[in-house]
């Protein structure tokens, strides 16, 4: 039931922008809770990578006195990976196209993360 509600939020998020290619809600220990991923993309790999990067981002923000981590953004040749906390126990990961309008995506991701945090 909760997974269906999370998937609904992800579907809504993915529908807000043609630039969003995939999204997932992952527990902070790397387990996929819900996802809307393209065929062939490994949920376990996305979950593990998201948890690892967020953990590293947390540590980096603390060590460099940047305050509490809000999000991690990775830019690659084929697009972006954006990770943000959705409550204390979950991470929202979004994959976006290389020409994505990040300002709008940041806003949509923030709203989705708040909805997810309320559910969990």
Give the overall form.
Answer: globular
Order of helices and strands: HEEHEEEH
Average pLDDT, to the nearest integer? 92
Radius of gyration: 13 Å
**Main pleated-sheet profile:** 5 strands, antiparallel
Task: Describe what you observe in this structure.
There is one protein chain. This protein is an alpha+beta fold. Helices cover 45% and strands 28% of the residues. It has helices at 2-16, 43-63, 102-119, and strands spanning 20-27, 32-36, 71-76, 79-85, 90-96. A five-stranded antiparallel β-sheet has the order 2-1-5-4-3, sandwiched between helices. A hairpin with a 2-residue loop joins strand 3 (71-76) and strand 4 (79-85). The model has no long low-confidence stretch (mean pLDDT 92).
Question: Topology of this structure?
Answer:
Blueprint: H1 2-16, E1 20-27, E2 32-36, H2 43-63, E3 71-76, E4 79-85, E5 90-96, H3 102-119
């Amino acid at each position: 039931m909760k997974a269906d509600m999370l998937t609904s939020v992800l579907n809504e998020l993915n529908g807000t922008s043609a630039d969003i290619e995939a999204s997932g809600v992952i527990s902070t220990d790397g387990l996929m809770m819900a996802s809307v991923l393209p065929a062939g993309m490994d949920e376990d790999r996305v979950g593990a990578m998201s948890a690892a990067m967020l953990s590293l981002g947390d540590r980096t923000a603390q060590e460099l006195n940047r305050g509490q981590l809000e999000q991690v953004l990775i830019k690659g040749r084929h697009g972006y990976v954006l990770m943000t906390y959705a409550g204390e126990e979950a991470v929202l990961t979004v994959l976006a196209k290389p020409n994505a309008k990040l300002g709008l995506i940041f806003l949509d991701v923030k709203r989705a993360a708040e909805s997810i945090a309320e559910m969990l």
